[in-house]
Amino acid sequence: MSSSARAMNGKRSFKLMIVDDSNIMRRRIERSQQFEELELVGSAANGVDALELFKKTDPDVVTMDLTMPRMDGIECIGRLVALKPAVRILVISALADKATAVEAMEKGANGFLNKPFTDRQLNEAIAELMR
Amino acid sequence: MLYEQELKTFVEGTTNFFEVAAQQPASIGSPYLMEGSPAVHEYTGVINISGKREGVVYFTAPKAMLTVLLMKMQENDFSHETMRDLVGEVANTISGNARRDFGRDFVISVPSVLTGEKPDMPHRPGVRSFIIPINWRSHSAKLVVSLT
Predict the structure, then answer these.
(1) B112 - beta bridge partners?
(2) Helices A73-83 and A47-57: crossing angle, nearest 10°?
């Protein structure tokens, strides 16, 4: 995990950014994640806005959709990792083919969760990401 | 041309969506060939398909069904924009999941959303469309798959 992760009440805290073109999905991820140490610093609906927000808020953890307008998630992952190699990225996408998951990991993602997902699956994937 | 096994992929994707996202299984009927104009409900999420296959996949549902679906998803915004968001997300999820069988060359667009019961539905002449009926709680919806 990034050295920029901060201490909060003796616990490390991590800044979270959520990227998805669906408002419903962004709210769902925010509502369902159960980690006190995650502080939501912002949400974006496409890769272009995500890049801008990333530069302003310097998140440690990012959830990333893939199919989005303006800039897709695969390209955005590459750009985020170039800006901050230590960022931890969880792809949350409906795209269920193995080749896409492999490409996302090769670009620098650290985990892949298929939509639809349960709250438990989401929290397990985030826990794995922060380990 | 769609094969039976390919239609099964969409039936399974639809089944999985309701089981996981709505936490309540839907009854998915046998696909049948669409004849004439497509019957649509108030909200329709459309995914354009390109790559090794071309066509559209769309999910169409009434507002009442979407409202209950949003409730089951713990959502508390039931605005017109949220309904549009939801039909697009359902269409996107089922189409994206189909890549498990169709592969990455089954390229899906971002969703576009049509509202009203007589929208101009995209249709390619000569391409057969199949309707997958969805019954969930007391509501009916459809997934329409129209691929070369």
Answers:
(1) B46
(2) 20
- Best of A23, A26, A103 to mutate (most B CBs within 10 Å, chain B): A23
Q: Which domains does chain A have, with CATH numbers?
A: 6-130 (3.40.50.2300)
pLDDT at B26: 96
Nearest to B73 among A21, A23, A28 (CB): A28
Is the pLDDT at B125 greater than 70, yes or no? yes
- Do residue B100 and residue A25 have CB atoms under 8 angstroms apart? no
What percentage of chain B has pLDDT greater than the value 90?
80
If one compares B40 and A78, the residue with the highest pLDDT of the two is A78
The secondary structure of B40-107 as a DSSP string is --SEEEEEEEEESS-EEEEEEE-HHHHHHHHHHTT-----HHHHHHHHHHHHHHHHHHTHHHH-TTEE
Q: List the single best residue of A30, A33, A34, A67 to mutate versus B (max B Cβ within 10 A).
A: A67
Average pLDDT for A24-37: 95
Q: What is the maximum span of chain A, computed from C-alpha positions, in angstroms? A: 42
In this prediction, residue B58 carries a pLDDT of: 94
Contact A130, A88 (CB under 8 A): yes
Output the pLDDT for position A6.
65
Query: B36: Cβ–Cβ under 8 A, 6 or more apart, which residues?
Result: none
CATH of the domain at B100: 3.40.1550.10
Domain total in chain B? 1
